[in-house]
Amino acid sequence: METKLRLKAWMDSQGIDDEQLVARLREHHHHDCSHHTISAIKRGVRKPGLAIAVAIERETAGWDEGPILASDWTDLAKGAA
């Protein structure tokens, strides 16, 4: 499954929207981003920077489907050389 779709699925499983994810990233990981950034990531318009990707990885660490790793957002995660 595409990483952006996994992020959507995780958010659905947690019952949170973009604003709530932004709040979690700020509170738990001291990373500041906007709901516009999260929306763009979920739509595939952009990929998260390293700091956001790591914060998402840490936030999703306990997910039954497995965490969304920071490396999942890279082309290397898809098997590209």
Summarize the structure.
Helix content is 53%, strand content 0%. The protein has 81 residues and is mainly α. The longest helix has 12 residues, at 3-14.
Q: Care to describe what's here?
A:
By secondary structure, the protein is mostly helical. It has one domain. Helices cover 53% and strands 0% of the residues. It is built from four helices and no strands. The protein has helices at residues 3-14, 18-29, 35-43, 50-59. α2 packs across α3 (35-43). The mean pLDDT is 92.
Classification by helices and strands = mainly alpha
Spell the H/E element sequence: HHHH
Low-confidence stretches: none
Number of domains: 1
Tally of strands? 0
- Strand-residue fraction? under 5%
**Main sheet attributes: strand count, strand direction, barrel closure:** none
What is the CA-CA span between the terminal residues? 20 Å
Number of helices: 4
